[in-house]
């Protein structure tokens, strides 16, 4: 069987394994940090897919997808993984000080590296379409609509969080340490970015149907 046909399923399986390691409840396996291993597997899978795509010539199907849509789908995938990982690890931020929590520091490092990998990957993928128009009026209109959805999502989540903290009795807010509240606000921004990219990707896809 042509190895090229097996490459994509293998990379998808590896990415799924890496994501599972990031989200797994166990902190370590045989003394190794699962989060760090999962992050490495996920990023290497993405780079492997990028390398394979880079070596192939542009197909007719690929040419129908604008560079802006490709970037939106990549952003959606990476932000979905980052949000899922952040939510699965939120319990580590229930600490009076991040300096006293190595687990929280590790989660923060993994998230930063995941977002850096997304930025670098998006920039590198853009070079594949360097000879094409990167953005037209249609792309800008979709970007404005997606930004609107993102603003509504961020506003709604901030209102919900403010109401929750404002009306809850003090004895039920033991979970709301300062690091937890700060990271909840970071999560709100991340979800807003996910909505932005997701809405843009879906709108592009619907326009092509």
UniProtKB/TrEMBL annotation:
Name listed for the protein in its UniProt record: Uncharacterized protein
Domain of life: Bacteria
Stretches that traverse the bilayer: 36-58, 70-88, 108-129, 149-168, 180-199
The keyword Transmembrane helix belongs to this UniProt entry's keyword annotation: yes
Keywords: Membrane, Transmembrane, Transmembrane helix
Keyword Membrane: yes
């Amino acid at each position: 069987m042509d190895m090229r046909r097996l490459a994509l399923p293998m990379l998808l399986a590896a990415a799924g394994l890496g994501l599972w390691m990031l989200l797994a409840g166990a902190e370590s396996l045989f003394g190794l940090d699962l989060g760090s291993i999962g992050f490495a597997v996920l990023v290497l899978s993405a780079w492997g897919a990028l390398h394979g795509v880079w070596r192939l010539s542009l197909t007719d199907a690929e040419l129908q997808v604008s560079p802006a849509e490709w970037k939106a789908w990549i952003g959606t995938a990476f932000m979905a993984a980052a949000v899922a990982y952040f939510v699965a690890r939120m319990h580590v931020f229930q600490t009076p000080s991040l300096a006293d929590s190595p687990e929280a520091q590790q989660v923060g490092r993994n998230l930063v590296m995941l977002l850096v990998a997304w930025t670098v990957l998006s920039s590198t993928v853009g070079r594949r379409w360097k000879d094409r128009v990167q953005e037209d009026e249609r792309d800008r209109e979709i970007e404005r609509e997606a930004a609107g959805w993102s603003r509504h999502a961020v506003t709604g989540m901030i209102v919900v969080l403010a109401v929750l903290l404002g009306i809850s009795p003090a004895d039920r807010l033991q979970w709301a340490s300062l690091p937890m509240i700060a990271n909840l606000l970071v999560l709100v921004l991340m979800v807003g970015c996910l909505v932005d990219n997701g809405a843009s990707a879906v709108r592009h896809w619907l326009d092509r149907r």
